[in-house]
Amino acid sequence: MQGAINQMQVTMNRMELQMAAERHNSRSRLQNSMIHGDAAQLATVRCEEVGPRLNQEPSQFYPADMVALGMLTAANLNYLEEFYGVAFPGANVAARRIQFANFIGKF
Fold first, then answer.
1. How confident is the model at residue 38 (pLDDT cuts 50, 70, 90)?
2. CA gyration radius for the chain?
3. Would you say the pTM of this structure is higher than 0.85?
4. How would you class 61 by CB atoms within 10 Å of its CB: exposed for 0-12, middle for 13-18, buried for 19 or more?
């Protein structure tokens, strides 16, 4: 009985973290969609995938602004794909940057 209660608590905690990430990301994506200018600060999107990074922000390579987004390399995008558990496909790095920009709400 205690094991079932503990498992339910773990599930509820995970669901709370996932909802917190989704709420945060909704605000971040809205904010990102409304910014203008290359130097405007991009809001950070958190991981929504269930796992050890749930509701966390990437520790590196998240672009601070549109200038930095335009400088993301293939390796940076690979890291962000792995972190978020989301693919940013494209025939070249520029196309992959656009996919990432869509993911964070910029386009």
1. confident
2. 16
3. yes
4. middle
Q: pLDDT band for 3, please (50, 70, 90 cuts).
A: confident
- Beta-carbon contacts of residue 78 (< 8 Å; ≥ 6 apart): none
Cα–Cα separations (whole angstroms), residue 76 to 10, 41, 68, 88: 33, 19, 11, 11
Buried b (16+ CB within 10 A) or exposed e, 25-58: beebbebbeebeeeeeebbbbbbbeeeebbbeeb
Specify the 3-state DSSP secondary structure of 65.
coil
Residue type, 92: N
